[in-house]
């Protein structure tokens, strides 16, 4: 296990850092004897912690102003944590900004800091910098990337190489992306960003057309059409469309997907279509438009085509946070109870179905990640007159409750947080479940048995768990019996679970 390390901010002087370390009980044991390039800024130093076996090794790159503090000893992690609180250090957002800077010196600083911190979350950015036009950057990125590769990756690369040799026309990296939702989104961003196919895109499409996930295969058919990927025509003709309820397709869907594949193959092959103005050509018109550009959403079938070709954009971050909401390490929580929230940004959402199909802009709001659990509900009701501590984990079993009990629970949480929390409206619930692309279910466009464990595009979970969830007006949304995002029913005397919202300020 490598020693934990910190990278101090470039503007922190050695003198200021030395004072902080001395206050924490560190003693400067030695420093480099060579005259430093910058007066008062030694390039090597060793500190020891009084009364312990802990040591701190400090290095300074005067050209890039890179300051690295590396800890060793039996309590290295504890000492690392204590110094991290006292010394201004480089955090992930600042590191990302350095790696994407237009200044060569800043990019190099970001690369060396990434290496010192073993920041594997930055691997993708580092990999992209291998193609930087500045040789010093590309060479450094190559070395840093090699240092970030975790144990066992070489064996994984060997397996990928063997798979690539067996299927040279496919993209094995795409095939091994974790999770079908990532593979769907990659295809939809290709549709969004590319004007035409190329050999690399063709390889991705060939992999997608044989993917285990039916929706990935259908999305690949749409991508082949939009990008005019004629080279993948043999793979497209052989692509298996959903043929069973187990794959989430009812008989009508199966026929639609099969006809879609055949029409795309016909268009890519340059075979003639029905004459302009003929009844058959008129029926095909919406589908043909969707194959050449953004779908003109008029009904449920064209909304499905839109959902299959539209990537999920995360949308704008909140301009400000309500008093009751805090952000900790990228996660939103209620300030006093600690319950997790998800952000639904102010973007357009497709809502409804059939004659109620419409596009509505979200006002921007925070919604509970999961329904309120039994433990959190018991804590909130008991603590609403004077809360102490934080609620227990909200990943436990949701509390079954009546509409009145759900509203009372929101009131109790409101007293604790000092801000009005309420049940979502049915439109807010559908936005949280459906996301901006108009999908049928929180997880996509095909029914699946494990839907209860899947999150929505906005990260909201347990939307179709065993019990439905209360919305304003006594409506029940979601639940095992009505997994479609548009489903809701009146149930003033029924039992459901509670999920709160906090509007944006």
Mean pLDDT metric: 89
Strand order of the largest sheet: 1-5-4-3-2
- N-to-C span: 45 Å
Largest sheet: 5 strands, antiparallel
What is the CATH homology-level superfamily of the largest domain? Answer: paralog of FGE (formylglycine-generating enzyme)
In percent, how helical is the residue content? 25-40%
Could you say which structural class the secondary elements and strand pairing correspond to? alpha+beta
Specify Rg, calculated over alpha carbons. 28 Å
Look at the structure and give the CATH class of the largest domain.
Alpha Beta
> What share of residues are in beta strands?
5-15%
Number of helix segments? 18
Can you characterise this structure?
The chain is α+β, with helices and mostly antiparallel strands and 505 residues long. The protein has three domains: 5-148, no CATH class; 172-309, no CATH class; 325-503, paralog of FGE (formylglycine-generating enzyme), CATH 3.90.1580.10. Helix content is 40%, strand content 13%. The protein has a five-stranded antiparallel sheet, with helices on both faces. A hairpin with a 6-residue loop joins strand 9 (348-351) and strand 10. The longest helix is centred in the middle third of the chain and has 18 residues, at 251-268.
């Amino acid at each position: 296990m490598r020693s934990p390390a910190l990278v101090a901010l470039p503007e922190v002087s050695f003198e200021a850092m030395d004072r902080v370390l001395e206050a924490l009980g560190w003693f400067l044991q030695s420093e480099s004897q060579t005259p430093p390039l910058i007066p008062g800024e030694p390039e090597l130093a060793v500190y020891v912690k009084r009364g312990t076996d802990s040591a701190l090794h400090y290095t300074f790159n005067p050209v890039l102003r890179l300051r690295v503090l590396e800890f060793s000893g039996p309590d290295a992690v504890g000492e690392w944590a204590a110094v991290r609180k006292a010394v201004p250090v480089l955090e992930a957002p600042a590191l990302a900004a350095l790696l994407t800077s237009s200044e060569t010196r800043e990019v190099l600083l970001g690369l060396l800091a990434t290496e010192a911190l073993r920041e594997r979350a930055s691997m993708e950015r580092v990999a992209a910098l291998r193609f930087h036009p500045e040789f010093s950057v590309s060479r450094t990125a190559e070395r840093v990337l090699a240092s970030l590769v975790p144990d066992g990756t070489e064996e994984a690369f060997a397996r990928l190489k063997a798979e690539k040799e067996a299927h040279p026309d496919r993209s094995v990296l795409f095939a091994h992306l974790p999770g079908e939702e990532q593979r769907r989104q990659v295809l939809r961003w290709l549709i969004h960003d590319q004007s035409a196919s190329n050999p690399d895109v063709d390889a991705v499409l060939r992999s997608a057309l044989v993917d285990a996930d039916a929706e990935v295969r259908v999305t690949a058919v749409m991508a082949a059409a939009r990008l005019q990927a004629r080279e993948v025509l043999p793979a497209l003709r052989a692509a298996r469309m959903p043929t069973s309820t187990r794959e989430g397709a009812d008989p009508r869907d199966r026929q639609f997907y099969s006809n879609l594949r055949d029409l795309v193959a016909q268009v890519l092959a340059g075979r003639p279509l029905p004459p302009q103005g003929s009844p058959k050509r008129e029926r095909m018109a919406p589908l043909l438009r969707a194959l050449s550009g953004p779908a003109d959403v008029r009904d449920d079938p064209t909304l499905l085509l839109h959902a299959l070709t539209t990537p999920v954009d995360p949308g704008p971050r909140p301009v400000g946070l309500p008093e009751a909401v805090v952000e900790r390490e990228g996660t939103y929580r209620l300030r006093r109870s600690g319950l997790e929230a998800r952000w639904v940004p102010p973007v357009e959402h497709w809502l409804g179905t059939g004659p109620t199909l419409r596009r509505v802009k979200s006002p921007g709001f925070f919604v509970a990640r999961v329904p309120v659990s039994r433990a959190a509900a018991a804590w909130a009701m008991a603590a609403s007159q004077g809360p102490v501590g934080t609620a227990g984990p909200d990943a436990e079993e949701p509390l079954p409750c009546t509409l009145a009990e759900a509203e009372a629970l929101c009131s109790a949480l409101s007293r604790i947080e000092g801000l009005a929390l309420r049940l979502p409206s049915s439109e807010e619930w559908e936005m949280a479940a459906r996301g901006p692309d108009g999908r049928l279910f929180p997880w996509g466009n095909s029914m699946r048995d494990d839907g209860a464990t899947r999150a929505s595009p906005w990260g909201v979970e347990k939307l179709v768990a065993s019990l439905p969830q209360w919305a304003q007006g006594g409506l029940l949304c979601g639940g095992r019996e009505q997994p479609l995002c548009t489903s809701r029913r009146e149930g003033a005397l029924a039992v459901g679970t509670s999920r709160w919202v906090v509007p944006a300020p």
